[in-house]
Amino acid sequence: MSLDRTTPLGAPSASAGHGAPARYATLMMATCNVLNLAQPGRHFYEGQDPYTHTEFERKVGWLGDRFRALNADVLAVQEVWDEAALRTAVARSGLQYGFVAVPGAKNGPGQIGAQGTPRVGIVTRLKVDSVQSLNDFPEAARVQVPGLGLHTRFERPPLIAMLRLKHGQPVCVITAHLKSKRPKFLEDANGVGIEDTADPAVQALASLRSLVMRASEALALRLKVVELLHRTQLPLVLMGDLNDGPHSVTTQLIAATSQVAYDKGALDHALFSAWDVQGEAAMRRDVAYSHIHQGYPEVLDQLLVSEQFVATSRRSIGDVRRVEVFNDHLFEGRDRSRSDHGFVRALLRLRLPDLPLSAG
Q1: CA-only gyration radius of the chain, Å
Q2: pLDDT tens for residues 121-131?
Q3: Are 239 and 309 in contact (CB under 8 A)?
Q4: CA atoms within a 13 Å half-sphere pointing along the CA-CB vector of 282
Q5: How far apart (Å, rounded) are the C-alpha atoms in residues 84 and 64?
Q6: Helix 53-70 vs helix 83-93: crossing angle, to nearest 10
Q7: What is the C-alpha separation between 14 and 294, in angstroms, rounded?
Q8: Where are the alpha helices (DSSP H) in 79-199?
Q9: Angstrom distance (rounded) from CA 86 to CA 56
Q10: What's the CA gap between 349 and 208, in Å, rounded?
Q11: Closest to 127 measured CA to CA, from 155, 95, 107, 98
């Protein structure tokens, strides 16, 4: 995080007290789906071989290089099986981070990493006030999934981190990884499939299950966002692999950006794509995809911000300067030592506290 004492054209126009120009601290944020980051020799998914020591070294070395290039103040990471593996990758970056955490994937006495599904985590050089996993849905978000029953919990619990910049400004960062579009086929108690996965009708129903599960996760996350933002001035950034596009129903369940067109009061608890509200329009590109599925580019990895980062909002206390997508590696071939997702980075700013009257 660095100090920016100038206020370029297009930045929030608010002035500090006594007519002085506003001062801003810069904040670099990035989201990274690291593709099944696990310790060497440990099984994570049925049918997938563990990483050999050579593969592991190649993977953490590659990630370390990417983390160094991003040089973010906050990294939101997804698909981590072992916190120890993430710590190794962070160390390979050569950068100094004071906080690395992946709840549910810790390693140590009696702790063997994530089980069943990978977890999300956070890496930051900011002061950490609190970190909390969001496990259970509120009652309003619980829905019946055909063949599975009541869906009440996140498969990969989002992580809510309350952080603080060095001048004291708070910022909330949510790391999320929603249910994928992969069809959810029924299994018995031993995890053995009990449906004909080649049957088109079964495939359609299995895809519906995934959609319903992802939608209920999105709703549960939306309710938490409203709880955090309603009638507050808390700057909030939600990052991660949402497994759907920015304008999809599930993403809009979380963001409710479209509601602002009909209800200005919705600004209070809406989220906005950092890509859409960035100030440096010249940085925008038509290749801002973060994933390629069967040859088609998609934007699954997203960075959403509250109105406090929207320069045109009357409650703005910062802005989004630019957003970049690091996706060149998606053309380097399929290799599990690299990620199959692009990494998204945004440069944000938050206003610094007013100087006292006697300050120069």
Answers
A1: 21
A2: 999 999 999 99
A3: no
A4: 1
A5: 14
A6: 60
A7: 47
A8: 83-93
A9: 11
A10: 40
A11: 98
